[in-house]
Amino acid sequence: MLMEQAWEKFIATRDPSARHQLILHHLPLVKHLAGRVAVKLPAFIQKEDLEGYGVIGLMEALDKFDHSMGNNFDSYAYHRIRGAMLDEVRRQNWLPRTAWQKLQLYKNTRERLEGELGQAVSDERLAKEMGIKLDELHQLVFDANKMYLTSLDEEVSGNDGGLTRKLDLVEDINSPDPLSIVEEKENRRLLVEAVSMLGERDQLILSLYYSDGLTLKEIGQILEVSESRVCQLHSQAMKKLRRTVTEMLMS
Question: What are the UniProt keywords, alphabetically (predicted)?
């Protein structure tokens, strides 16, 4: 009943509170899809990242869904959410499709053989099982290692026991704080414009934190991620904002 009322209110007035209620109601669908998509992905693309992209897809689904067509929203949202996740995965994945397919074959073959034999498998056995030459296997592993190294996603434990990427702990001391820049130039319009240039997830996190005054823990509850993960996403958003404001001031 509550969802029916939220839908009616959202359809009639596009009420933000009703939209927020609908987003929260459909977050389990986002988590479910993120879990399914994450199974076939390398470690540097985290399930929590997929959930973030999925939330953006869910928001787009809510805003673009046409109720007059009589379609089921869950079915429509399923494809929009999954599409948003896969679009971001393709954007991050620099490997050609053929190399990616070979990498997946390598991963699946190794896991299968190790499961059957109960021990680590030699490169020679892997190459033979995959039907490729040994030097091709070595090149494939080399490409995969480069992909992980350039991701800079090695995680360390934070003060709250959560995991944080090392990259997010490095402060750029040569880059001025965007809020300080704006205050010095007395130009709040510039900050608003810079925020509007960020992605929807970054805007949401900054809005919840600075406009609505929510804590990182409360934001984590909304997005259904850990507090340390919200801290990481907030740090990333601020870095993007800092860079955008600096570029606008210098242009």
Answer: DNA-binding, Sigma factor, Transcription, Transcription regulation
Cα 109 to Cα 39: distance, rounded to the nearest angstrom: 15
Structural domain that includes position 71: 2-92
Angle in degrees, CA 160, 164, 165, rounded to 5: 165
What total number of domains does the chain contain? 3
**Digit-coded pLDDT (tens) for 185-210:** 445 667 778 888 888 888 888 888 87
46 and 32 share one domain: yes
Alpha-carbon distance of 208 to 55, in angstroms, equals 15
Q: Residue 3: how many CA atoms within 13 Å on its side-chain side?
A: 7
Rg (CA), the chain: 22
Are residues 167 and 142 part of one domain? no
- Answer yes or no: do 86 and 17 share one domain: yes
Give the pLDDT confidence of 31-54 residue by residue, as tens digits: 888 888 777 665 556 777 788 888
Q: Which amino acid, one-letter code, is at 4? A: E
